[in-house]
Amino acid sequence: KATCEVIQIFSKNQMQWALPPISEFVTEKFLENSKSKNIETVSIHASYLLNLASPDENIRKRSIDDLARELERADLLNVKYVVFHPGAHLGSGEAKGLKSIAESIKEVFKISKSRNSILLIETTAGEGTHLCYRFEHIRDIFEMTGEYIDRLGVCFDTCHVFQAGYDIRTEESFSKVLEVFDEVIGLKHLKLFHLNDSKRDLGARVDRHEEIGLGKIGLEAFRFLVNNKLIKDLSGILEIPGDIEGYKRNLQTLRRLINGNDL
Predict the structure, then answer these.
(1) What are the tens digits of pLDDT across the range 121-167?
(2) Contact 56/93 with Cβ under 8 angstroms?
(3) Alpha carbons 206 and 160: distance in angstroms, whole number
């Protein structure tokens, strides 16, 4: 098994709309095991079917309901964050798509019984018509959902950000990207990292993850990330291709990078 401090889970099948209830027995066992193993489930990743920007009202409504229920499940399991892909406008245009996402988020909070868990918009690679590949997109959504700003944050996916055109390969360039993030959105809204290298080049806008140090981003970006005083205390989740051995290997790589240790 891979020894880690935090994990991310799916609370249901991420490729289906079905939302089976979580039994009292499962809830108790989950909370008991989390405590005994000293592992925090920092996030639930919402369904990949969600599209809050969809021009198809049926899909948008199903997405809203699904996300509202995920927040409730997060409360039940004592999980702080629900990470979600905001969606693709499918030809309706970025402005309309962003407005749809913002309005949908407001509906999610209105119908959900959740009072604790926080929604994290995941930065995207910008593949196809997917939105939130630019920091300005997230800023605009936040501005349109101001009354719920305390229940919103950002999950910064290193692979997606790189593929969207933000160069994070060196300490200098990564620092500049964080400065831009702070100016546009605000670092206070950055809550979680997805730690992935990239199979594709800078700005490719194609979502393909790679193991840490084996892709186009390289080790220096991750050395900077795990040691930078502004962000090093934020939780990070690996989403790499491969099996458990790959996760062990990548966890070891990241730990060796802490405090500038050589590999």
Answers:
(1) 999 999 999 999 999 999 999 999 989 999 999 999 999 999 999 99
(2) no
(3) 8
pTM for this model (two decimals): 0.96
Helix, strand or coil, per DSSP, at residue 193: strand
Here the tokens at position 17 are 């709309």
Residue with tokens 């309901």: 65
Strand 209-210 to 197-198 pairing: antiparallel
Using alpha carbons, list the distances in angstroms from residue 153 to 29, 184, 194, 236: 29, 13, 14, 15
Exposed e or buried b per residue across 1-39, where buried means at least 16 C-beta atoms within 10 angstroms of its C-beta: eeeeeebbeebbeeeeeebeeeeeeeeeebeeebeeeee
- Name the fold adopted by 6-260: TIM Barrel (3.20.20)
Sign of the CA dihedral running 190, 196, 201, 206: negative
**Sequence ranges of the domains in the chain:** 6-260
CA distance 221 to 191: 18
Residues 251, 240: Cα–Cα separation, whole Å: 11
Mark out the alpha helices in 45-111 (DSSP H runs): 57-76, 94-111
